[in-house]
User: Which sequence fits this backbone?
């Protein structure tokens, strides 16, 4: 643990919170502009997140503000620190990269705040940055050591080959990935993701996170990817350019969203769209390792054309015996009919969950688009489900509090 900050430093950082609230996005935008002048730092980032209405800019601004407001109560920030540490593992961020961020952040504060960014303010923010950086680096070192110690574990980038490619729906395709070196792979925690690095036909290098959609295994991972026609190219590359035998570079499984090793309560897996991918990983694990666990797999899709992996999910449920599957279609086609192609028309609601799942005892796991989470997370709270029983994963940066 790093040496505690001086009370004066804490006081000045907390006093700067209103300025950060007013100018945070400007500061982080300026910081990224400075960082990206360095090609080797620019190459570390997933640049699809730099668009999306400034999602990454807003996410970092919110994180910096939260740090300033809670610098005297860092326990509040523990989940954020854990999430950032796992992201850094995924993108292979190393200790030598931290000084670049420090320099860019302090310069950006000076740029935006002007004369208000006094030497004293910049000095204390430098201290505060390195205090948090030391906490992150310690946690990242622990995660790397744990990964190194696993059978099949590794650190950094490792080459994998696309061993098979399976179309799951009109928009989702699964990719089975095996290491080029023929060795074992680290068994992931069901719910975690991989970070892939690849180059498209035009030579552009991309890094993308994809949830693992298979249960833990020693020899392969499976990801199931939605083709995003309006996206930044990652899904288009995988769907249109990557073929069986294509080689991709991958960092080890990461992420703080996963099913516990021994679930202590009934489990409800809630997903929207391609958010089912980590849920299928959890379901495969429940089916293989927890024969007595009550589980509910509740999924929302547009219709049968977009609904992926339904037969696989129902086969697992039948074999297990204590898994209940329910599917909702919000835009059923003329060929869809509730009770045949799916179970219910419309959207998943907390009222439905109250009637059909053990809402007062279950652990809830959610993954899907932000609108899906913004609807269900607060609704579960209104039904009396404590935040400690609600776990969720989201796509892209967390630029807003989901439960707001």
Assistant:
């Amino acid at each position: 643990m790093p040496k505690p900050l001086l009370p004066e430093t804490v006081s000045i950082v907390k006093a700067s919170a209103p300025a950060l609230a007013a100018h945070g996005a400007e500061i982080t935008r300026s910081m990224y502009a400075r960082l990206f002048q360095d090609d080797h730092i620019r190459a570390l980032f997933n640049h699809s997140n730099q668009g999306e209405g400034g999602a990454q800019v807003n996410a970092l601004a919110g994180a910096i503000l939260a740090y300033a407001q809670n610098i005297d109560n860092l326990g509040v920030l523990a989940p954020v620190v854990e999430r950032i540490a796992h992201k850094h593992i995924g993108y292979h961020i190393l200790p030598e990269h931290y000084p670049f961020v420090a320099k860019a952040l302090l310069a950006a504060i000076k740029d935006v705040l002007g004369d208000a960014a006094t030497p004293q303010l910049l000095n204390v923010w430098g201290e505060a940055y390195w205090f948090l950086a030391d906490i992150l680096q310690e946690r990242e070192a622990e995660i790397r050591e744990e990964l190194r110690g696993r059978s099949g574990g590794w650190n950094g980038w490792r080459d994998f080959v696309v061993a098979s490619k399976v179309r799951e729906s009109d928009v989702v395709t699964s990719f089975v990935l095996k290491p080029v070196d023929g060795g074992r792979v680290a068994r992931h925690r069901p719910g975690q993701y991989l970070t892939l690095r690849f180059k498209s036909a035009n030579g552009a290098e991309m890094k993308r996170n994809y949830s693992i959609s298979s249960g833990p295994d020693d020899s392969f991972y499976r990801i199931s990817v939605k083709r995003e026609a309006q996206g930044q190219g990652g899904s288009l590359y995988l769907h249109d350019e990557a073929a069986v035998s294509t080689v991709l570079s991958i960092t080890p499984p990461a992420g703080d969203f996963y099913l516990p090793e021994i679930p202590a309560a009934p489990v409800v897996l809630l997903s929207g769209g391609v958010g089912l991918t980590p849920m299928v990983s959890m379901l495969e694990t429940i089916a293989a390792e927890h024969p007595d666990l009550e589980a509910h797999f509740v999924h929302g899709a547009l219709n049968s054309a977009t609904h992926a992996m339904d037969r696989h999910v129902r086969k697992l449920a039948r074999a297990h015996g204590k898994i209940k599957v329910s599917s909702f279609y919000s835009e059923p086609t003329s060929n869809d009919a509730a009770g045949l192609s799916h179970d219910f028309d419309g959207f998943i609601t907390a009222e439905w969950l109250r009637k059909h799942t053990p809402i007062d005892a279950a652990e809830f796991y959610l993954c899907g688009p932000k609108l899906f989470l913004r609807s269900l997370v607060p609704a579960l709270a209104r039904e009396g489900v404590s935040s400690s029983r609600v776990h969720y994963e989201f796509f892209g940066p967390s630029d807003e509090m989901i439960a707001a």
